[in-house]
Specification:
Pfam families: ABC_tran, oligo_HPY. By secondary structure, this protein is of the alpha/beta class. It has 14 helices and twelve strands. It has two domains: about 15-25 and about 30-105 and about 175-245, P-loop containing nucleotide triphosphate hydrolases (Rossmann fold, 3-Layer(aba) Sandwich), CATH 3.40.50.300; about 250-335, no CATH class. The longest helix has 18 residues, at about 190-205. It starts with 13 loop residues before the first strand and ends with a helix.
């Protein structure tokens, strides 16, 4: 009796391996390591939240995924094929991967109508179909119904939530496979945020649209994402399913971020100081200068304090599909 060998799982829609993005240092100083060895994957129909403090490299990573910032090294693959930086290849890539920015006010030209704002992508990519039909369908999918009411309006005539929906419609009109949404609700009132997050979930259900949601808010990640990747000082330090990472965080940095959410049990963890300069990343674990586990002696008692100071931890298996870059957490998982 012959058995059929198991088929290999399909490659992720978006795959990032060993990605580094650097910028020149100030006054001839060392280069700024904005993205410093990131590995990340987003599968078709999946929402992944990329979480971290301001300045950790989230937005630079998002722009690199669109080909807007060239990497110093590493690899970005989309649908199993490497991203190349020839103009024609980049144009084709940006049709399939669309960026939704934080501030719809700055994304929209105040002199352009809603129709022109949404149709802009079609014109750039020389769409050959019925432009008006495509625009109205995108507006309807983004929740602006009936779309004909909005076509001739200018941005100042819309609410903040409506403007964000126009920006999303401008992305949807090109039928992308992945949205990269950089703080998509940060500038909106609390009453509107839930509507936009519900829209992302509906688009995933209806279109099997994948999304990478860049945010500083772990609460947002809990509400919308399937998986979460926590970023600190240019690198992913913990990643896994939302349920695993947010109910049983392994990395001390993730624990600190979660501790300040409303309704969280226990006292908030106040991290000392500011994140280090990305041009001067500390030796050993990049979080060690702010780590409460190292400062409180827990790492010493676990026998990993010297490794924290000397060895840069890579992502390792922490169980339940979670990967973490932390010597202390790695030891706890092994024990």
């Amino acid at each position: 009796m012959t058995t059929t060998p198991p088929t290999a799982p399909p490659p992720p829609l978006l795959g990032v391996t060993g990605l580094h993005v650097t910028f020149p240092g100030r006054q001839g100083g060392p280069p700024v390591r904005a993205v410093d060895g990131v590995a990340l994957a987003v599968r078709s129909g999946e929402i992944v939240a990329l979480v971290g403090e301001s300045g950790c490299g989230k937005t630079t990573l998002a722009r690199a995924l669109l080909g807007l910032v060239p990497p110093a090294s590493g690899r970005i693959e989309f649908a199993g094929r490497p991203l190349t930086y020839r103009s024609r290849a980049l144009k084709a890539h940006r049709k399939r991967v669309q960026l939704v920015l934080q501030d719809p006010g700055s994304s929209l030209n105040p002199r352009h109508t809603v129709y022109d704002a949404v149709a802009e992508g079609l014109r750039v990519h020389r769409y050959s179909g019925d432009e008006k039909e495509a625009v109205t369908e995108a507006l309807a999918r983004a929740g602006l119904r009936p779309p004909e009411r909005f076509l001739l309006r200018l941005p100042h005539e819309l609410s903040g939530g409506q403007r964000q929906r126009v920006v999303i419609a401008g992305a949807l009109v090109l039928a992308p496979e992945l949205l990269v949404a950089d703080e998509p609700v940060a500038s909106l009132d609390a009453s509107v945020r839930g509507e936009i997050l519900a829209l992302l979930l509906r688009l995933r259900a209806e279109l099997r649209l994948a999304a990478l949601v860049v945010t500083h808010d772990l609460g947002l990640a809990w509400n919308v994402a399937d998986r979460v990747a926590v970023m600190y000082l240019g690198r992913i330090v913990e990643t896994g399913s939302v349920e695993e990472v947010l109910t049983a965080p392994r990395h001390p940095y993730t624990r600190a971020l979660l501790s300040v959410l409303p309704g969280t049990a226990g006292d908030p963890v106040v991290l000392s100081g500011e994140p280090p300069d990305p041009a001067r990343i500390p030796s050993g674990c990049r979080f060690r200068v702010r780590c409460p586990v190292l400062a409180g002696g827990e790492a010493e008692r676990a026998g990993v304090a010297e490794r924290c100071r000397d060895e840069d931890p890579g992502l390792s298996d922490a169980g339940a599909g979670v990967r973490v870059a932390c010597h202390w957490a790695e030891g706890r998982a092994a024990g």
